[in-house]
Amino acid sequence: MRCLRAFARRVPPVDLDLRCRELQHQTVGENDAAKFVRNKWHHALEVGAEMPEHHERGSNGAAMAHSNGTHTNPAAENWGITDQVTQLRISGSNVVYPLSELGGEPTLGASVECAIKIDDPSKQVSRRHARLMRAHETWLVFDLGSKNGIHIDGVQQPAGALAPGTELGIGGVVLVAESVQLSALRGFLARLLGWGDDRRAQVDRAMRAVRAAATRLVPLVLSGPGELVSIAASLHAHAIGRDKPFVVCDRRRREADADVRSATNISNPSQAVRAAIGGSLCLLRRRMPSDMSSITEEFSRPNPRVQLILCTTSERTAGSALRSYPADPIVIPHITEREHELDRIISEYAADAIHELGTARTTFTPEDLDWVRSHSASTLAEIEKGTRRLVALRAGENLSSAAARLGMAPVSLSRWFARRDHLDEVRASRTKPRQVAGQARGPRRRRGKTTFEMD
User: Fold this and answer.
1) Is domain 2-181 annotated with CATH 2.60.200.20?
2) Do 2-181 and 218-331 fold alike per CATH?
3) Which of 164, 286, 176, 185 minimizes the C-alpha distance to 231?
4) 404-421 pLDDT tens trace
5) Which of 71, 221, 338, 364 could anchor a disulfide with 329, C-beta 3.0 to 4.6 Å?
6) How confident is the model at residue 425 (pLDDT cuts 50, 70, 90)?
């Protein structure tokens, strides 16, 4: 629990001494275990030591901490979402409790007097079940002697710190600690799986799978139609960080470094593992390396240095790829099952393209959305590709500048749009008094194909 150790180094002992004396009067009925943990934290602050910890896997695969003398698992530190927790949300719903609106040290429980009143159909929540305390940028939670205790990431504990993604069990209710970055990850997962009420539990399970995989204890398995590498790369960027390596090991792709359009591909498994250290290694189920020994060896280590992402088109075959590393797959539905959400999916991918390409002034018009829906919406990967290329073309002065933004040859971009009969529509929509050098002049037929002349 890095936040507790950082907390111990920052807070002057006198401050916590005063705080503990106040809490002793405020938490009458708190169980002995919670008081013991408080005293352990107090002692650590006085001597300037790090908190002793012991790890146990919770129900979500995350490493848990207990006071037992061992050090933090370095793999758990691979989770890249470390910004400040801003709210608690009931898992599987959109019910949130903004922490900024709660003054002092809010209590959680079934009583109407609690700052966070929890309605639990199973009646397992005590009237005053737990208390939150803020220490600089970290929220801490303490059990107040409740009958059923509190569970942090599936493990019962008397107290603990809330980091983004932490699941806090209060009776029969699970609260997810969320930050701005974690909310962005949840939003992206909802884009993949759906925004309906029936999809919320799936989104939370997927978020748990992403967080567990970030600890490198289990692989992240993606199952769905079409190209999944771009989705894997986006999840890596959200959960691990864009600055960490993302490497694909595909024996049928050409060796290539990362560019605007695609990820690094290294077909040699041992070289791919070395290049992915500190980040993610992505494998395709239908094109697995012929020699898996170096990958198996890496994930047999006590602390794997790489997050493994497996992409498969079949949920049934997902588990057979790496039987030694069971994981709950994220099953992405076919786009035909989400016709009613298609416009929102396209709009969100267009917003991403505008942000990533640095074209904030670009307008993605309703006509553009209609075109993507008609010409480039067979899969999520195709929607991402179509919106990105269309945004680049709208923003560019000409075809060449649009291609340069995308890191591809102008002729390739021209042919891609020509196959979709749209470059002439984009050109006609512009209201420029003169033609810019390098801009596509117009389509003409040659041997049954639409081509483009360049100035």
Assistant:
1) yes
2) no
3) 185
4) 888 889 999 988 888 776
5) 221
6) low
